Amino acid sequence: MQVSAYAAREKGGELTPFSYELGPIGAEQVDIKVMYCGLCHSDLSMINDDWGMTEYPLVPGHEIVGEVIATGEAVKNIRIGDKVGMGWFSASCMSCQICMDGAHHLCNQTEATIVGRHGGFADMVRGHWSWAIPLPQGIDLSKAGPLFCGGITVFNPIVLAGVQPTDSAGVIGIGGLGHMALKFLKYWGCEVIAFSSNPEKKEEILAMGATRVISSKDPEALKSIQGSLKFILNTTNVNLDWTSYLRTLSPKGRLHHVGAVLEPMAIPAFGLIGGEKSIGGSPLGSPALNRTMLDFCVRHDIYPTVEEFPMIKVNEALQHLKEGKARFRIVLKN
What we know:
This protein is of the alpha/beta class. The protein folds into 2 domains: about 200 residues, Quinone Oxidoreductase, Chain A, domain 1, CATH 3.90.180.10; about 130 residues, 3-Layer(aba) Sandwich (Rossmann fold), CATH 3.40.50. The protein has 11 helices and 17 strands. Strands 3, 4, 5, 8, 9, 16 and 17 form a 7-stranded mixed beta sheet that branches. Strands 12-11-10-13-14-15 form a 6-stranded parallel beta sheet. A two-stranded antiparallel sheet has the order 1-2. Helix 4 packs across helix 5. About 45% of the residues are buried.
């Protein structure tokens, strides 16, 4: 079967039309006709080989929404015609202790949708049936794609940290990830403090669910909420004054990272010890948690704020993202 796609042929290269052949479908695999695919900053990182693991030609795209058009003979619970989503992962081993414990996203044999294989900037994509997540009735297909990467990335920490509706929570960085975290925490029932360096976003941030917006550049503003937050989610990829943020946590509070801060972070031991505070991080989430997140989104009508481009204008969409103009996620429509 021939797949029509858009691929980068070299590091940082423009995406151009690309075709490739898919072999016979595996017993536990499904083929998905791509209807929509989100454009994530991780796609840009892979195009630029920022992480040193890109193989060219590269077909990016890992926030996929589409229709199942073929299934292998051993596929379970997925039928031709089902609407599904697929994110960063397209397979896991399904047999190790981690998978059997329900944490498939932590399996050391996971297959990433755009690492060593081709992704969703195409008319079709293939993956293991377990990572083809069934879409609940009533979901808006045109906005669902980013939930399978950005959405689950910020939903998982809320569950991991045991955040309660009575808690006060903070979100650092209100961009593609952070704006979804605001929406989730609002409907979780929390008081939500947004830390932002851009004062022009204040009204928009409040409208998305923040109770209060605090300038991340203002030390006095950080002092004003000292000891009040049970949970802080960092969605940025830059090193910040972590000591100041730790001080805003209440005893037993948690600072959780989903932004890929590449430099070592300076964390004072006494900033943790005195209040039994903790620091953590996480990747995306399991197939089961993806389903839970989707149900939560449909129940509360939660979607990322998206801008839509036709797939044929993928390079314009990439440039829009590079220039920091995306508000707040980009979706490509086939």
